[in-house]
Amino acid sequence: MKPILDSSRDVDKSDWANRKRPGRYIKWLSLSLMSFMALMVLIIYEARWVFPEIQTYFSQPGNLTGQQLATRSRHYLQDAQARLLDMPGPEERAAAITDIELAYGLFDVDVYHQQYDCTSPSLGVLDETVTSLESDSVLPVVLARELLDPIACLTRIEMGQLDRRAEAINTFSERTRWHNQVLIYTSLLIFVFGLLFWWLHERQLRRTEKATQETLRWMGRAMRDPLTGIGNRSALHQDVMQQAQQLLGLVLVDIDFFKQYNDTMGHPAGDALLRNLVLLIADALPEEATLYRLGGDEFAALLPCEDIDALGRYCQQLHQEVQRSAFSHAAHPDKKQVTLSIGATCFMPSRVGFPRAYEAADNALYQVKTAGRDDWQIIAVA
């Protein structure tokens, strides 16, 4: 027996509330997800930035290759200078010329011309030295001394390229440090905003859930009788509509001479009697039945109805249960205990309709009252 509202109605209301909810809190959730996506994009960007920067600072000829060319060129000139200082013969002269020409080729690069003003004069000295060696017009010792200026220029270039390399490394380090700081603080900021948006989303969700629960509680109260806790007339109509394809039994119960009971015993006693009768009816009818208070001393029960005979047994059982309970009724004109008048019918809402079924059960109840009350009657729906 279920003396309160069917929980299926709460599920239906919850489904209704869930349909109303989407879109109300999706804004904060979207912002949160966008924040975390922005964080991922930032991390990917920073990761892709590092390799091109390394290529920029450590793969340009002006930084590394330039220094290596100057060093090799200086070594060739120093070898040629050593040969010339040893009073060379024809073979040594030829070897010195080869060394100078090799040094010239490594020396004559654009980056040296653009960045060091000693490059062009030094190359000119190398041209003159080769010419003098080929014509044997100048002493080798003198030519060896002439190579000092190109060697000094190459040494300057080496030191300059080392300085430029160190400067490039420092610049790269500073930029890397700056990018790391930007990455850390920006990531932290985006992460905090993401958490903030997520918290706002959760707060709004909780508020929505709370509002939904309040709405459901309000709807539940609107569908219940405040005195007894069972359903009211609106709940009865709703339950009938939800079971339109089922064969149902409708039982109407009226307390005989309830006004006299209230007048004699007082309204608090009358309220207590109503609550006690709800429990009694709940025990007398099957577990599948649902109770409703239609107003005053009139109750209704909705239950599965296999056939008229089964419904009659339930009505008989309820009538006997009230008799056995022997609730005192000092103002009853015929007896000294509470009695009930019961009218019932069996129907399928989709075929008959609730108004006709209610009318049939009410007619059965009226017949019981006109015949002297304290009985039950079933009328089939016409």
TrEMBL record:
InterPro entries: Diguanylate_Cyclase (IPR050469), GGDEF_dom (IPR000160), Nucleotide_cyclase (IPR029787), Rev_trsase/Diguanyl_cyclase (IPR043128). The chain crosses the membrane at residues 25-45, 182-200. Keywords: Membrane, Transmembrane, Transmembrane helix. Residues 246-381 form the GGDEF domain. Its EC number is 2.7.7.65. PROSITE patterns: GGDEF. It is an enzyme of class 2 (transferase). It catalyses: 2 GTP = 3',3'-c-di-GMP + 2 diphosphate. Pfam families: GGDEF. This is diguanylate cyclase. It comes from Vreelandella janggokensis. The lineage of its organism: Bacteria, Pseudomonadati, Pseudomonadota, Gammaproteobacteria, Oceanospirillales.
